Amino acid sequence: MHADFTFIHAADIHLDSPLAGLTARNPEFSALVRGATRRAFANVVDLAIAEGASFVIIAGDLYDGAWKDQSTGQYAIAQLARLTRAGVRAFIAFGNHDAESRVSRHLTTPPGVHRFDNRRCDTVVLEEYGVAIHGRSYREAATTEDLSASYAAPTPGLLNIAVLHTALEGAAGHASYAPCVLGELRARGHDYWALGHVHERSVRWKHPFVVYPGNTQGRHARETGAKGAMVVKVRDGVIASVEHRACDDVRWLRADLDAEAASDMPDLLHGVGAALRDALRGADGHPAAARLTIRARGALGRKLAADPDWFEAETRAQAAALSESLWIEKTRIEQTDDGFGGGLPPELAALMAQADTDADCLRAIRAAVGPLLDKLPPEIGDAEVAPLTAAARSGDLAALVAAARETLEARLGEADA
């Protein structure tokens, strides 16, 4: 008779990995979210205990790389010990970030924690659950062989789980480590492939299950939405459900605003507030960092582009008004073509388009710029008046033409507004 039980499938915890893009612009928020990867791992442990899980699988990249100090390893051991004290076993395969070549020293794990070998596939049989768990860790970070080919065949009569850190055939934004083919995994006969490495959660196949849980904590603005682990329930020896549960501590959001219909700046700022409010619903009460993208055209678009620092300060104020735990990671302004050469009247746009290739125009620029450079005091360095002075001194006339066009567009925008 097969037992009914639950297990947790997590991956890509990246303990002590910093959240990118926050420190310089948002020191207060950076301080608030420091340790987010640790708290996300603690949330995975809490989830396993609350669900009465029999075991937890970590499919690679528990660590983000070599430890800066021993506290990273000590924290991991403390959390694993919380699991085992609650009667929950843990099975860990190390991936490219925590391969033997990158993390050569490991602290002694508590009883009930199994670390998969990195020279061969090894198999652990849990007779009480009718389960065989197969796995293999990375020895080298840049592992490009198909590790799945070395996995043991399924154990007859048992539910077979295979733990593997892989990009499968390849995934955008992820190095192609331990590459393998989905069809070959399906054909090997295992019931559940517990994968790691790809940070977007997905069930790539059912029956047999081929599953990425995604990472437990988004680490930058491209890793948006809820992050966590899979809760897998087994009934009578068969996988009955696979459900994602959020475990992240900080949420990354995207807020997009099409501002082409905005009549003026107050109208646009009202739209910014609405877009941030909509995005904030996806935070589910977590501290959140949002990347705001605004599409604008005409005079309003030119005005935004002319003073991006001022406008970003405005968006941060809008975020603060909504929540003390919402921060703007970056504000991007995308100007759309308004039929006037990016903001210039057609005749002037045509002249500017030819300015850096017209010999007469270039001679006129040199003649105008040369005397101005001669009048600059020698104590004024390029760092203080760069990049235009540096471009002029180096003879980069194309850069001067581009800067002139931007200035014209901005000035026209101010006049129109």
Textual characterization of the structure:
The protein is α/β, with parallel strands linked by helices. It folds into 3 domains: 242 residues, Purple Acid Phosphatase, chain A, domain 2; 86 residues, no CATH class; 71 residues. It is 34% helix and 23% strand. A 6-stranded mixed beta sheet has the order 4-3-2-1-11-12, with helices on one face. A 6-stranded mixed beta sheet has the order 5-6-7-8-10-9. A 3-stranded parallel beta sheet has the order 13-14-15. α5 crosses α7 and α6 crosses α12. 38% of the residues are buried.
Please state the average pLDDT score: 86
Q: Number of helical segments? A: 12
The overall strand count is 15
Morphology = elongated
Query: For this entry, what is the oligomeric state of its chains?
Result: single chain
Biggest pleated sheet: 6 strands, mixed
Low-confidence blocks of residues = 381-385
CATH third-tier fold name of the largest domain: Purple Acid Phosphatase, chain A, domain 2
Radius of gyration: 28 Å
Number of domains: 3
CATH class call of the largest domain: Alpha Beta
- What is the beta-strand fraction? 15-25%
Q: Whole-Å distance between the termini?
A: 77 Å
State the fourth-level CATH superfamily of the largest domain: Metallo-dependent phosphatases
Annotated CATH architecture of the largest domain:
4-Layer Sandwich
Structural class: alpha/beta
* String of helices and strands: EHHEHEEEEEHEEEEEEHEHHEHHHHH
Strand order of the largest sheet: 4-3-2-1-11-12
